Amino acid sequence: MANITKKVSWSSRADESGAAGEGTPLLNGSEQPRHSRQVQLAWWLTVRLTAVTPEEARRCCVILDYDNIENQLFLEEERKMSYMGFRCLEISRWVVCGLIGFLTGLIACFIDIVVEQLAGIKYQVVKENIEKFTEVGGLSISLLLWAVLNSAIVMLGAIIVAFFEPIAAGSGIPQIKCYLNGIKIPRVVRLKEGPMIHSGAVVAAGVSQGRSTSLKRDFKIFEYFRRDTEKRDFVSAGAAAGVSAAFGAPVGGVLFSLEEGASFWNQMLTWRIFFASMISTFTLNFFLSIYHNKPGELSNPGLINFGRFQGDSVAYNLYEIPLFIAMGAIGGLLGALFNVLNYWLTIFRIRYVHRPCLQVMEAMLVAAVTATVSFTMIYFSNDCQPLGPEHTEEYPLQLFCADGEYNSMATAFFNTPERSIIHDVLCGILLATITPDGSIWADPGKYALIGAAAQLGGIVRMTLSLTVIMVEATGNVTYGLPIMLVLMTAKIVGDYFVEGLYDIHIKLQSVPFLHWEAPATSHWLTAREVMSSPVTCLNRIEKVGTIVDTLSNTSTNHNGFPVVVKPPKLCGLILRSQLIVLLKHKVFVELARSRLTQRKLQLKDFRDAYPRFPPIQSIHVSQDERECMMDLTEFMNATPYTVPQETSLPRVFKLFRALGLRHLVVVDDENRVVGLVTRKDLARYHLGKHGLEELQLAQT
User: Fold this and answer.
1) What pLDDT score was predicted for residue 401?
2) Which CATH number fits domain 2-378+417-508: 3.40.710.10, 3.40.50.880, 1.10.3080.10, 3.40.50.300?
C-alpha cells in the first residue's frame, strides 16, 4: 500500500484537509491545486456562508452513504430477522413518520400563535401611538417607536443566529436540498429554529434516530434506523411535513421532497412521506381550531395561503393564456435580475459584513428601514376605505381619513407577513390602472396570483412542486394550467441567464451537488478521464500501524478504501468510519486469538457511534498494537459497485444519482483497481464548457 499522488485536480475548492496554500489530496485521489483568487474566494464563501469554523468547513462536503454497506455483519443480521421482524420494522417506520408529522405540525402551530401575539402587541402599540400624535402632531415619534420595536425584536433573533447557531440563517432550503442530494453540511439537522422546511427536517433527523446529539440524550429506540439510508428517508418526510404545514399543501410537500431529493424512491416510502404531510396539516388545523375557539373545525389553511378563489374570479379565457405566458417571461427576467443582484450582494456581505456583530447591526438596520418605508407609504397614502360593521381588519388605522374610514395601506403593514399576502394585489391593480376609464376588466386577485407565481418561479425555478403548492394554497385546481405555464416559462427564460437562487447559493458554497442529468456534451468522456488515480488501497489483512498512519495523514482526507488481495485484485471496499470503530474496539487478529471470551463486534457498535464517529486523533494505539494485524473480511463491503475504464460519464453519473453512491471503483479487465470516482469528481462537470476547458488545461 502506498500513499496516492494526484493526476489532475477535480475541485475548485480550497484544500480540505491540508495546510493553506498547499496542494493536498481532497478525497481519495483528489488533490487541490495551488491557491488562486477563485479558490480563495470559494474557501472564504464556504466558511462564511455556512457560518462554521474552518475545521468544520474542511468537512462540510462529507458525502453521505445512501447505499447500504452489505458486509457480513449486515447480511447476518438481515438473514436472522424473521418475516414478523421486518413487518415490525415497517410499522416502526410508519410510527416515526406519524411522529414527525405531529411534531412538525405542533411547531408550526406554536410559531404561528407566538408570531401573531407578538405582532399584535407591536401593531396595537404603534397604532395607538400614531392615533395619539395624529391629533397633536409629532408623528416622527411614532416612526421612531416603530423602528425601535422592529429593531429590538430583530436584534434578539439576530444575536441568537449570529453568535449561537449561524447555520439557522436563511431559508435552509439549499442545505436541505444538499442533504437529500447526499451531502452532509455541518449541523444542518441539529436542534435549532428555522423555517418550516428546515424545522421539519430537524425534527425528522432527531426523532428517527431515537436520540438527540444536541441534548446528549439517547432513548435507546429506533436504533435500526441509525444509518444514512434510513435517516435520509425520514428527513425527506420531515421536509415534506414542513412544506405541508407552511402552505397547507400535503401533496406539494411530497413533490417538493421528490423534486429536490433523490430518484431512488419506492412506493411505500412515498406513502409514508404523504402520511407525514397529512398528519402535519391535520395537527396544525386541529390545534389552530382550538386557538380560534372553533374546536374541531379542520378547514384552517397552512401558515401561508393565497386566499380562496370563488365565483367569477376563478374563470379565465383562452385569450388570457398568451398573457399568462408573457407574465411568466417577465417573471423569469425579473427573477434572473434578482438572482444576479443577490449573488453580488452576497459576495459583498461576505467580504465586508462577516463578523457576527456586523451581521446583527445589518439585520437591525434592515428592520429600521423597513419600518421607515412602511410608515412613509402609509403616511402618503390617500386610499381610504369605509369601515363597515363587519370589517375584518384587526388594527384599522384612521390617520388622515374621515370618520368611519380607515387607511387601507396600513392593512397591508399592520398584519403578519402570512396574512398580508391575502391583501396584496400586484399585477391585477396595474391592469386596472392602465385602462383609460379605470375600469377593472380582469379580476385583480387572479392576476396577483399569476404575477406572484411568475416572480417566485423566476427566482427559485421550481416547477412541479411549486405548481401543486400554489394550487393547494388557493384551494382551487382551476388555475393549475396557468400556474404551470407561468412557472415553466419563468424557468426557461430565467435559466437562459442564470441559475435559480438555491442553486446559486449551493454553488457559492462549492458543494458537489449532483443534478438530475449529466451535461449533454459529456458522452465523449469516460471513467478513465473522470477517476482519481492512483488509489490508496488496503490489504484484506492489513497491519494496524499502516491503517493508523493512513487515517492520520494530515495531507489526506480519504473516506473510502478499496480492499485488495494478492495478486492485487479488488475484493471489497471499507470506509474511514468503519476503520475508526474497529480501531476503537481493538479488533486485532492477535487479540482475538488471545482473548477467547472477547465479545464479537456487532452492527450496534457502529450504530452507537453514528453519526459522529470519533476522529482518528482520539484513538490510542500503542506501539505494540501497531504491529498487530487487522482482518477486514467481515467488515468490508464485499460487493462494491465497479465499472470498467471505458464506461461513459453519463452512465457513471446515472449510477451515482440513482443509487446514491459515495464511491465507484474503476477496474481493468483483470479486476485490478485503477481509479476511484467520487461525487466531487462528477460535480465539476456541471460547470459545462468552462469546466471542460479547465480540465483540459489541468491535464496539459
Assistant:
1) 82
2) 1.10.3080.10
